[in-house]
Amino acid sequence: MLVNCVAYQDGKKLADITKEQISDYVERKDCFVWVALYEPGPEELREMQVEFGLHELAVEDASHGHQRPKIEEYGDSLFAVLHTVEQEKTPSGDDELLTGEVAVFVGRNYVLSVRQHTQMGFAAVRGRAEREPELLQHGSGFVFYALMDNVVDRYFPILDGLETELEAIEEQIFVRNTARSNIESLYALKQKLMVLKHAVDPLMEATGRLYGGRVPQICAGMGEYFRDVYDHLHRIHLAIEGIRDMLTTAIQVNLGMISLGESEVTKKLAAWAAIIAVPTMVAGIYGMNFKHMPELDWTYGYAFAVAVMVIIDVWLYFNFKKVKWL
Amino acid sequence: MLVNCVAYQDGKKLADITKEQISDYVERKDCFVWVALYEPGPEELREMQVEFGLHELAVEDASHGHQRPKIEEYGDSLFAVLHTVEQEKTPSGDDELLTGEVAVFVGRNYVLSVRQHTQMGFAAVRGRAEREPELLQHGSGFVFYALMDNVVDRYFPILDGLETELEAIEEQIFVRNTARSNIESLYALKQKLMVLKHAVDPLMEATGRLYGGRVPQICAGMGEYFRDVYDHLHRIHLAIEGIRDMLTTAIQVNLGMISLGESEVTKKLAAWAAIIAVPTMVAGIYGMNFKHMPELDWTYGYAFAVAVMVIIDVWLYFNFKKVKWL
Amino acid sequence: MLVNCVAYQDGKKLADITKEQISDYVERKDCFVWVALYEPGPEELREMQVEFGLHELAVEDASHGHQRPKIEEYGDSLFAVLHTVEQEKTPSGDDELLTGEVAVFVGRNYVLSVRQHTQMGFAAVRGRAEREPELLQHGSGFVFYALMDNVVDRYFPILDGLETELEAIEEQIFVRNTARSNIESLYALKQKLMVLKHAVDPLMEATGRLYGGRVPQICAGMGEYFRDVYDHLHRIHLAIEGIRDMLTTAIQVNLGMISLGESEVTKKLAAWAAIIAVPTMVAGIYGMNFKHMPELDWTYGYAFAVAVMVIIDVWLYFNFKKVKWL
Amino acid sequence: MLVNCVAYQDGKKLADITKEQISDYVERKDCFVWVALYEPGPEELREMQVEFGLHELAVEDASHGHQRPKIEEYGDSLFAVLHTVEQEKTPSGDDELLTGEVAVFVGRNYVLSVRQHTQMGFAAVRGRAEREPELLQHGSGFVFYALMDNVVDRYFPILDGLETELEAIEEQIFVRNTARSNIESLYALKQKLMVLKHAVDPLMEATGRLYGGRVPQICAGMGEYFRDVYDHLHRIHLAIEGIRDMLTTAIQVNLGMISLGESEVTKKLAAWAAIIAVPTMVAGIYGMNFKHMPELDWTYGYAFAVAVMVIIDVWLYFNFKKVKWL
Amino acid sequence: MLVNCVAYQDGKKLADITKEQISDYVERKDCFVWVALYEPGPEELREMQVEFGLHELAVEDASHGHQRPKIEEYGDSLFAVLHTVEQEKTPSGDDELLTGEVAVFVGRNYVLSVRQHTQMGFAAVRGRAEREPELLQHGSGFVFYALMDNVVDRYFPILDGLETELEAIEEQIFVRNTARSNIESLYALKQKLMVLKHAVDPLMEATGRLYGGRVPQICAGMGEYFRDVYDHLHRIHLAIEGIRDMLTTAIQVNLGMISLGESEVTKKLAAWAAIIAVPTMVAGIYGMNFKHMPELDWTYGYAFAVAVMVIIDVWLYFNFKKVKWL
Description:
By secondary structure, the first copy, chain A, is an alpha+beta fold. Chain A has 11 helices and 7 strands.
């Protein structure tokens, strides 16, 4: 689906144009065309391939989807795949991270973005770019930066969400009887973390080649901007690694808490078993049928036996309390 | 076994030729020969070595098998070893991954593929190549790409299978009493993952040297195609690492679930032990043979004793319910 | 909030100046201005941006905060983000590490430091710099070094604190019944360690580019000083990794101690169960109501039965003692 | 002990010579001497040092032994240390890996091998070399290759042995009641793996510098041969890492099986405890000495009580069977 | 404390000189001064700084101590920090590794060593150097090598000690009831290992820059010697990593043994519980007070009951023996 198709010159919008007009504008010097597609059919992509002269392999990647994030040079043009990450409620009420894809083709005088499996549009990016003509003058390279910046900025709330989740688990982790829910939360968090990691890490690596030494022609003179994107990605990367490290520790700590929990149950079991078993033993002894058992004939024999039981049990109880078994 | 032996010129098939004719065609300029062998004997390989002037060490590798995937330069020619990975049912009904090998010798005007321990043929590759003469014109380098692309594409369904398996285990992992089957599945998945990893990782590394800076002459001008193969391999590599990471976590989580399971059994054991032990103790007390035990003479002594037992047990039962031990 | 604004020449303080005068002094050759801000509003930062001609993206980073530590070149000037780490008591009496941020803009003839979320001022740095005119003569590069040195030096007491904490835990780890508090301490230590690690590691990496090969103009001729800062950071980095490694081991060892603890409880439980169960069994036997039980009629039958019980129990007790179950 | 001392020219054996003659032959152009020592005394090594002009430090390394595998250049000559690995039965019937050492000094016209702590000789290498004069013509560099190739080829059966051992353990790992022997086998396998790893990894690294870019003069023109050795070492390296990875998983899985095993014992214990405790409780109740217990006077009271016990127990038994506790 | 102060020329000792004479000798061509200090006061260091013209930052490092091992260039001179590692008995009889520091300043014509927190002197190094004038002729660079070599050689007995300790633990690890002492030994070994690792790893890295490509002027022409030191450090490094790896495995295996141990206790507990509980149940049944219990009146009723108990118990005992629960 064609979302937008606009021609720009000198940082200003020239006109909304039709698909057929693209090739006219692309030929003009200092003019570039910015096209946005949403889940296009093979037909539509084929048309764009012809209009912009896109490389076979890049178009194939854009139409198949399920690429890893990457930035590739095809001659003078760039082909980038970015992952969007969105949080959604599953029917069962849990949060889930969904991955969408944005393929971007950038040439000297065109930008073509192809969105798939994501609701996130780039209207805001277009709006901001049009309000800053002095930046938009940089041409298609700036639009490429603006798109990347936008996608990357949207990772931050996701990351914040994961950090909040980790903190929530950390608060629960030493609370008794929460081990089962903790372990489930830790695993779920790890799953989400991996989704974000798979979106961020390859992109970070690729972005690192857009500034510094030899950079693609299109990105020339915008090094500080792409370094800024890299920097954001690197920050997210470090945060992810930090969470991953804490998660591993948290899982092990949780294992320890489970064992401790069982240990405490065993102690309680042992203590109460003793408290019940001792009177049972005493009662058993006075339940023997020997002819000659002097205590049985005492007037206060029964009271004495019960007293023995109670005294031993009280003594046991306080001893177990003292050693924290109860 | 000789599967195929065809001469090509200008992207078009010239003729099916015999082994003896190979040397004639190889000498012609702009003409190349594409030979496919299936589990050849030492004799057959020896013949090919002579026809194409293959290097001693490369032929040795191809005939011994059990190589790691690799791409080596011998002067102007290339020698590649690729692993095929196929899923098979074992007699006991489990899936198993089988590794086969394809050795490929590529020179300026020949391609020789040697398949071993695998049913996967390359008829489809030959068919596709012959239908695309404009690509086949690139010569032996393109055939090499097409063979690699085909082998690598066949890793994807295997990878999908492993991802599906992981998801299936993840759904089971927090279900009670599945720990034993989970742990077996996790280990089996890990084994399969390692098979795929051993096929993919060394090949990825080797493919990375077929584009970009200095590349072998045969691959010149096809950088974007080999980068595409690299990209696919890298994607599989990342997915494998992701599964591996989740597997490690899943195994630890499963350990936690086992401990939790035992903890719950211990709690149940403790609770029921208490519920049975208390009446036994009370009964023991009234089973003592003291002369003077007033309760024994009460008309409702028996009922009273039983009532005491029942009341304590009911109280215990609900308390244990409340703290989730039952 | 403007903390300080001073102009220097030839290593000596010229004058405290107002914000408006900055541009005058910055234009003078061999003169530089050193400005310190504390949690400035967007207004204040905007002014500074104009006075010093700071880059848009750097100013944005300084005002947003929550950057990772980094050192970036913008043309001839540098932009650095440093993390301060301070120990604070939480209301619940635990120690906590708080992260603050210092953004530093350094140009040929200005230094602008922007402190956020931290009480740590740089009065001491200014004082020391003013007392060493021969060093201050190096200009803004030296001030930059002095600021970094000061921030990094303040990591050492934090690190010492963490090492002391680890030692305290190590002394407790093999003591019985401390597993729960140990595991909590280990996790808390890990959390603090990660805070320090996130401050140190990225900064170390960045500092490594300030000496040796190609260095930013501003740092030229001060290589040994920046190498010294790098060296300190590297030392902290190694110490952190060492603690991290020991922590992992300590957590596993603690898990072992928990299991051992439970094992010992189980042994005790088993031993006492036997000691109580045997007399109960004997008593049960002599509590049977058979007509013909010769022992029941013996004069010393009761004494005999009790003796049997006691002898078996004493024997059991010493045996359990011998095998360390008691 | 001098094993062999032979002079070669143009790929053909000239003569067996004495130690004293070495210097004569070494001076001749196109002639080289190949000496093999077995556990030489310091005297013998000293002689060789003089004959061949070996470097002090290299001779020291060869006589001390216990070096890590390495390949070092001393001017135009090479000094290599290789580890041999042999499997031996210990008196207690277990397999053990023993490490021996081969130090090789290679100059333009000599090869000196010094074997220590190993029975493996190089007679086969010498035989093969003498049968292939066209290769032996390459001179001392080829002999060096042949020695390395021989040592490396002998790692493969060791590796196969370790893989077979892992498979044997994997078959046992999910079998009940094998945890103790599994854990011992896993540890023993890990120990052997480390022995092989210490032989292979440093050598692989060193061999990687014998082909490709700048190579020592002696190895010039033989790049494909040394790459082949590297390739074998890399294959073993990958296999070792694979086994190491599976071992780690296997140890964790085994831990899980131990916990599962205990869990099952606990369940059985709990089930049988219930089955025995219930009749005991019932019996206890009817063993009370209340005057008024109507059941005691029933004609079938006893039968009734026993029936109650049996019915409850049968019910319990089948329930425990159903939930797999028995 | 000044330990030694000697001037050398052409590999021979000229004279013991006083501190004041140093500057005279340092000015002479081909002459160098070798000074050894032991825990000097700030005064003494200040003097040396003046005599030799040492860099401020290096002197600061030498006087503060607690540096990581490193080798730094200051112009033409080198500054090195080495860690000595000594084994000491603690009052409680355990071994402990103590770290000392040696700072070495090396210039074209001086060597200054500053020892701290260590008893290890360098008299032996001086003696050896003076006995080998042909090596001492190399000047200060050779002394530097000799000092490093000496420090590094002293790591080997420490390493051997750790390897012996690991072997001792490995022999204990599968012995029953040693888990607690094993776990303590493993942790103590890990602690010592980290001490050695912190001494070795950074030094290895630094030494790697003293041979091969661009080396400091002072070390020129001595590449093989410094490579030898590097080689020793690398060997120790690999051994440490090997021990670390085995330690991790050993700790996990020990965890497994603890669980197995508990499992065995639980089995024993279960078995004996059954053996005691069954007679108790039987006795309970014949202790019931039913009027009509035919067995009670049998002449051999009692013998029969006891026989039933014994038979069941014998049967249980052998069954438990068979399944290895006893």
